[in-house]
């Protein structure tokens, strides 16, 4: 439905406009390239649209400004890391007050009690441990699962996202075999040795994987998010819970992105019953943090398996895990920013965003769809909702995506760079959402002629 010649002409225009509008960022990029590959502090930052990345000078709430003094509405929000908004006042005040009293000590402070109590109330799991990222939390949980079950392999979904966990960098090939994902850089072992990949929403495939008898845990997002939003079929989670219980595998729910579903994530919103729950990014207001919760029975099993003498050298934790800075940030963010009242504002904003996008898609006759999960929404280049990760991947169009993102960026709107996703924060406004709707409609008008 998209004229490729027109797309390339429009994209070339937008690239020229971007360069013209960003001389200060261009200068910073030239300096940055002297000592950083791609001119960025982390390689994936090179994937932003445009000839070079925008250099940020200040971020606050749902907006940021760049080195050229241009203002942007931020719907990316650090790909969930700034879901609370950039530098929320309550988190900043708590952290600023606590900094003179110590940043990290390897000893507990009172904030840890507040955070673990709040997490228990939100997610329904009684025991919690803390890390510096959800990736760390996932790695630790996988170790515990192997120790508790005596089994070696982990089940994940095709096109899942669990941070940089080695076991999750796997996919299915055209014959249905587990293989290293294309983007798996320097894998320590062939992931087929550690992992069984199954399609999302495929109960038969999960049952076959668990029937092998060597699966320690099923690690899953309750809805796929990093290949676009893929929602579970009715009854899917009940079937997953029944199968894991039947075959003695532990069920790990990763809520790092799906916290968008509500204050207790998808787990609380839909009554899930995991053995472990992992979350990171959002709950620290931008300060690095992560955590994993355990059921009472799992916590008791862990205590029996891990001897006190080995508790500091078993591959679980780290000297900065549970530090005072992260704990204070989580206590303030959970207690005062990402509250139930905030979600009551954010979810309707995502509905408004999705409705505006859907109306523009229909008006311009494009065979695309919109999906929403709580305060997160996205559009994708297929007429039907995807049933699994492969469906979502088949609907992607990198060339088109790069143009749409650059068009938005040139008009002061930032979307999540790896797909067409928008996230609402407590600081996002209806005016922010409506600005995106107007921009998107104008973009499609040009694209379709």
Write a structural description.
Helices cover 40% and strands 15% of the residues. By secondary structure, it is an alpha/beta fold. It has two domains: 4-86 and 339-448, Aspartate Aminotransferase, domain 1 (Alpha-Beta Complex); 89-336, 3-Layer(aba) Sandwich (Aspartate Aminotransferase, domain 2).
CATH fold annotation of the largest domain: Aspartate Aminotransferase, domain 2
Give start-end ranges of low-pLDDT stretches. none
Note the run of SSEs as H and E. HHEEEHHEHEEEEHEHEHEEHHHEEHHEEH
Structural classification: alpha/beta
> How many beta-strand runs?
16
Spatial separation of the terminal alpha carbons: 11 Å
Attribute tags:
about 450 residues; alpha/beta; Aspartate Aminotransferase, domain 1; Aspartate Aminotransferase, domain 2; 2 domains; seven-stranded mixed beta sheet; four-stranded mixed beta sheet; 14 helices; 16 strands
Write the layout of secondary structure elements.
Elements: H1 4-21, H2 23-32, E1 56-60, E2 63-66, E3 71-74, H3 89-98, H4 110-123, E4 127-131, H5 134-149, E5 153-157, E6 170-172, E7 178-180, E8 195-198, H6 203-210, E9 215-220, H7 236-247, E10 250-254, H8 265-270, E11 276-280, E12 290-294, H9 296-305, H10 324-336, H11 340-363, E13 369-373, E14 376-380, H12 389-394, H13 398-409, E15 413-414, E16 421-423, H14 430-448
Parallel strand pairs: 3-15, 5-8, 5-9, 9-10, 10-11
Antiparallel strand pairs: 1-2, 2-3, 4-12, 6-7, 11-12, 13-14, 14-16
């Amino acid at each position: 439905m998209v004229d490729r010649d027109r797309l390339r002409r429009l994209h070339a225009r937008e690239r020229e406009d971007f360069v013209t509008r960003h001389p200060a960022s261009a200068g910073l990029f030239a300096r940055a390239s002297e000592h950083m590959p791609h001119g960025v502090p982390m390689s994936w930052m090179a994937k932003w649209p445009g000839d070079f990345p925008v250099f940020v000078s200040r971020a606050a709430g749902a907006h940021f400004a760049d080195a050229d003094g241009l203002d942007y509405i931020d719907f990316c929000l650090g790909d969930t890391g700034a879901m609370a908004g950039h530098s929320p006042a309550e988190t900043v005040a708590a952290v600023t007050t606590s900094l003179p009293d110590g940043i990290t000590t390897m000893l507990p402070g009172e904030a840890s009690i507040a955070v673990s109590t709040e997490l228990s109330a939100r997610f329904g799991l009684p025991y919690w441990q803390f890390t510096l990222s959800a990736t760390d939390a996932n790695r630790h949980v996988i170790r515990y699962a192997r120790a508790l079950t005596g089994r070696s392999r982990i089940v994940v979904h095709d096109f899942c996202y669990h941070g940089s966990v080695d076991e999750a960098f796997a996919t299915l090939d055209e014959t249905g075999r587990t293989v290293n994902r294309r983007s798996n850089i320097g894998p320590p072992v062939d992931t087929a040795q550690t992992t069984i990949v199954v399609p999302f929403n495929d109960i038969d495939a999960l049952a076959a994987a668990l029937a092998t008898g060597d699966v320690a845990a099923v690690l899953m997002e309750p809805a796929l998010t990093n290949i676009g939003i893929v929602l579970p079929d009715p009854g899917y989670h009940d079937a997953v819970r029944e199968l894991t219980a039947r075959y003695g595998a532990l069920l790990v729910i990763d809520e790092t992105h799906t916290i968008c579903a509500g204050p207790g994530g998808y787990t609380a919103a839909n009554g899930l019953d995991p053995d472990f729950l992992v979350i990171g990014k959002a709950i620290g207001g931008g300060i690095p943090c992560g955590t994993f919760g355990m059921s009472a029975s799992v916590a008791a099993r862990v205590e029996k398996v891990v001897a006190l003498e080995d508790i500091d050298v078993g591959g679980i934790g780290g000297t900065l895990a549970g530090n005072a800075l992260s704990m204070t940030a989580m206590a303030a963010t959970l207690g005062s920013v990402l509250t139930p009242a905030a979600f009551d504002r954010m979810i309707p904003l995502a509905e408004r965003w999705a409705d505006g996008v859907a109306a523009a898609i229909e008006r311009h006759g494009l065979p695309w769809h919109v999906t929403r999960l709580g305060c997160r929404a996205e559009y994708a280049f297929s007429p039907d909702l995807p049933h699994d990760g492969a469906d979502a991947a088949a609907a992607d169009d990198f060339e088109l995506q790069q143009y749409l993102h650059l068009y938005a960026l040139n008009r002061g709107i930032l979307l999540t760079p790896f797909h067409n996703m928008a996230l609402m924060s407590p600081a996002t406004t209806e005016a922010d959402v409506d600005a995106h709707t107007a921009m998107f409609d104008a973009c499609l008008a040009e694209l379709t002629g």
